[in-house]
Design a protein that fits this description.
Helices cover 12% and strands 56% of the residues. The chain has 213 residues and is mostly beta strands. The protein is built from two helices and eight strands. 26% of the residues are buried.
């Protein structure tokens, strides 16, 4: 099922990108790519003992050149994405007796859950050239998303996604690049719904991009 969703999603993204006119346009990216990210709550920074949370994320990327300043290049990265999530409440006492139907919620939320998050993220990246083909890249991102399952930490529905990444981008061929980095991510809904404790993750990511002009 996941593979079918990814194939359909990638197909429509590809059509949208290549159906544009060949002439330079503000809507036409100079580079396209795909990035895979894996992150968990269980790490040396967070490791909240109340719950288990992990994400496998696939991001389809369109890169827009924003110019340069001194030896720093700037890019806007448009990133539609699908996140496949696994979550389970470990500490049932997290659901306190003052909550409505707390016993039912404990029963529901202590079950292992497989969830999906669909999002559109805007990243602002800066790159410093280390060698002729190797760049140090930092990216700050913010996006809108929809999560399809409620948990004790976050309501089903509209959410925000925030990410900070740092890594290395290496030009492997004339028009091809690989990226390897680390990522800190957060998901919450700014109290539009309750609950809104959200999730924090730390993980690794790897990507490939191709220069189209």
């Amino acid at each position: 099922m996941k593979n079918r969703i990814l194939c359909v999603f990638l197909f429509f993204i590809s059509i949208a990108l290549y159906s544009q006119d060949k002439e330079a346009s503000i809507l036409k990216p100079n580079k396209i790519g795909i990035l895979y990210h894996y992150g968990t709550n269980e790490n040396f920074i967070f490791d909240d003992p109340d719950y288990i949370y992990a994400t496998s994320t696939y991001k389809f990327q369109a890169f827009y050149n924003l110019g340069e300043w001194k030896n720093i290049d700037f890019e806007l990265i448009l990133q539609p994405q699908i996140q496949f999530l696994n979550h389970q409440l470990v500490n049932e006492q997290y659901i306190t007796p003052d909550q409505v139907n707390y016993l039912e919620k404990r029963e529901e939320f202590t079950q292992s859950k497989t969830m999906n998050l669909y999002g559109l993220e805007f990243g602002f990246a800066s790159k410093i050239k280390l060698t002729k083909k190797l760049d140090l890249q930092g990216t700050i991102s913010l996006g809108l998303s929809f999560i399809d399952t409620r948990t004790e930490r976050l309501a089903k529905g509209f959410t925000f996604i925030e990410n900070f990444s740092v890594g290395l981008s290496h030009q492997i061929y004339k028009k091809s690049f690989i990226y390897v980095g680390s990522n800190f991510g957060h998901v919450s809904n700014l109290n539009f719904q309750k609950p809104n404790d959200g999730y924090n993750i730390l993980g690794l990511e790897v990507g490939y991009s191709y220069l189209i002009f």
